[in-house]
């Protein structure tokens, strides 16, 4: 297995020069005419072009009453992948960064980890050895750091971590590194009667503490991977204890399964960025009626990252080929997005 | 194990005499003054008294802005059991009646069932032998009749069956044998900003085809037991195939687990009728803030059924004791409900 964790060399000069441009962009966006423009344009961070048009056309089509492609409000279900579709997933999944930090925080209570892989590698910041521990090593890290506490305790641990942890390149909170154009898209769909769901390979309980505040997606509209829990009465108080046992992996073929289990009807629009989203896009679009599939292609190494067919996280290979065949919209991040992050 | 299926002797005279009263009730409900009354009273099928007051008081309390027990709209989650709480569950769970009918419908393709239990018992209407096959026999029946087709095909099978199958005593469609007072309660809670969920031990895919039409509860707000599914491409069309393997049992301690998995936040109100709902009621109410727990106690053998501590379906024993300790509202169906079914 190839090393799965490789921090890209940060080109500080490029980063700084692009940061220097921000006040200009920011000022223009907040000028009076820009605000007026934004009121007319529901997707102000999207450049005009075929990508943006495909979204606007689809929404116009399914909301036009008495037209052939009209879809009743209750059937307007849209599903969004999270990592790489709504927020950053490089240089590693945010949840993995969380797990590594948790290992370090928990280490004093686990002196044996100093000599035990994959914990030793984490404690020594030895990403190469960690990568060599493979998927089995990563699953072990996730289970150890995500289990053994109640669901309420875990939600607090996640919230506390997200309140302070910063992205290694952008030095921002992870919740600031969400994609502004996708926030606008979520709001635009909801304004048109859509119910927006997250359907992510990430942990369902890792997302729920913050998705409502950041994306406007409430906990009951978040689908994700999960571990098993056990109901217990502790001092006459009911708790759910998180167990070190995988319950469900909401990735690849797991996404349609998770959608069916949680939502119980087929989405009419799905948004992803990697091969993990292929089956969700197939499930959503390869059926009758007006359907919309969209893939975010990360093409902007300067403002964010550029990766696809050979990436360790968020690999986009088969789904990119399928997009061409199935006429899914492919976002060229560099070309289609005026801004990447809300802070830009 | 005691026989689990025993059709109660129907007292035809009582049934007919109560049916004879219906036009009177019906007429009074639709008179002008009754309509005006209904407009003022959100729960017209509930008799005045402590039960009804406890509901009205709770809703008033959590919706009064700037008061100590105010609950923001997004946290107003209410969960309802289905069998025995929203619709009839005697003389057997509706889903079991469905499974038995399915065995008969599928029998021509399974000649071996003539000599194989528990199928033989079903085909011969031998309820005693069927009951002796125990839980294992019933699970086998359910898996055989609920698996092997796609999710879309299963939804159609359920809808077709419910369109014609009739209750043995009331001779009505099962979807007509839902509780009118509970329909009013669902609507009343929604009118006060609650999101209403079903959390049932019954099959999630057995409920979803009709809960929106009958209860106003959309598929994505239905939690239930499930079997595993497999994603497949069939002639370039994606399908989910139902497998004869249990995925999740949404009963007893499974209810808080299912609530956490599907909803991701704790309800503030929960409604049940049996020991299967005990842990859901504990999870909902034994915590800080304004909380509401309610148990439907079936006390009306004349208009519906009377059963509790020793019933084969919907046994209410531990949860009835817990209701007294935890101050949950207990509905005395005979005393508290003016009408039972919408058709009354």
Features:
homodimer, 344 residues, Rossmann fold, eight-stranded mixed beta sheet, 14 helices, 42% helix, 16% strand
Strand content of chain A: 15-25%
Tally of discrete structural domains of chain A: 2
Quaternary form = homodimer
- In the CATH classification, which architecture of the largest domain in chain A applies? 3-Layer(aba) Sandwich
How many strand elements of chain A?
8
The dominant shape of chain A is: globular
CATH top level of the largest domain in chain A is Alpha Beta
Percent in helix of chain A: 40-55%
Explain the overall architecture:
The structure is a homodimer of 344-residue chains. By secondary structure, chain A is of the alpha/beta class. Chain A folds into 2 domains: 43-91 and 177-336, HAD superfamily/HAD-like (Rossmann fold, 3-Layer(aba) Sandwich), CATH 3.40.50; 94-162, no CATH class. Chain A contains 14 helices and 8 strands. In chain A, strands 1, 2, 3, 4, 5, 6, 7 and 8 form an 8-stranded mixed beta sheet that branches. The longest helix of chain A is centred in the first third of the chain and has 19 residues, at 12-30. The radius of gyration of chain A is 21 Å and the shape is globular. The relative contact order of chain A is 0.16.
């Amino acid at each position: 297995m190839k090393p799965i964790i490789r921090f890209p060399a940060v080109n500080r000069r490029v980063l700084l020069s692009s940061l220097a441009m921000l006040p200009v962009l920011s000022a223009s966006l907040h000028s009076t005419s820009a605000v007026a423009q934004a009121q007319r344009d529901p997707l102000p961070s999207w450049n005009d072009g075929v990508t943006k048009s495909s979204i606007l056309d689809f929404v116009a089509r399914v909301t036009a009453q008495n037209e052939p492609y009209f879809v009743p409000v209750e059937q307007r279900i849209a599903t969004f992948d999270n990592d790489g579709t709504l927020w950053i997933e490089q240089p590693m999944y945010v949840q993995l960064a969380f797990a590594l930090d948790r290992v370090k925080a928990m280490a004093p209570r686990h002196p044996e980890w100093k000599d035990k892989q994959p914990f030793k590698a984490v404690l020594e910041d030895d990403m190469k050895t960690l990568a060599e521990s493979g998927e089995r090593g990563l699953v072990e890290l996730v289970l150890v750091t995500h289990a053994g506490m109640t669901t309420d305790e875990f939600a607090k641990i996640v919230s506390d971590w997200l309140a302070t942890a910063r992205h290694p390149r952008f030095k921002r909170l992870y919740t600031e590194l969400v994609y502004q154009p996708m926030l606008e898209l979520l709001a635009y769909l909801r304004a048109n009667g859509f119910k927006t769901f997250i359907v992510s390979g990430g942990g369902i309980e890792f997302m729920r503490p913050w998705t409502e505040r950041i994306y406007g997606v409430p906990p009951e509209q978040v689908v994700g991977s999960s571990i098993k829990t056990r109901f217990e009465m502790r001092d006459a108080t009911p708790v759910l204890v998180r167990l070190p046992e995988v319950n469900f992996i909401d990735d690849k073929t797991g996404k349609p399964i998770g959608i069916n289990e949680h939502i119980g009807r087929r989405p009419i629009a799905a948004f992803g960025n990697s091969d993990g989203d292929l089956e969700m896009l197939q499930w959503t679009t390869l059926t009758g009626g007006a359907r919309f599939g969209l893939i975010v292609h990360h093409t902007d190494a300067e403002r964010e990252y550029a990766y696809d067919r050979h990436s360790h996280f968020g690999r986009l290979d088969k789904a990119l080929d399928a997009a061409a065949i199935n006429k899914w919209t492919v976002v060229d991040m560099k070309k289609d997005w005026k801004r990447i992050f809300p802070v830009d």
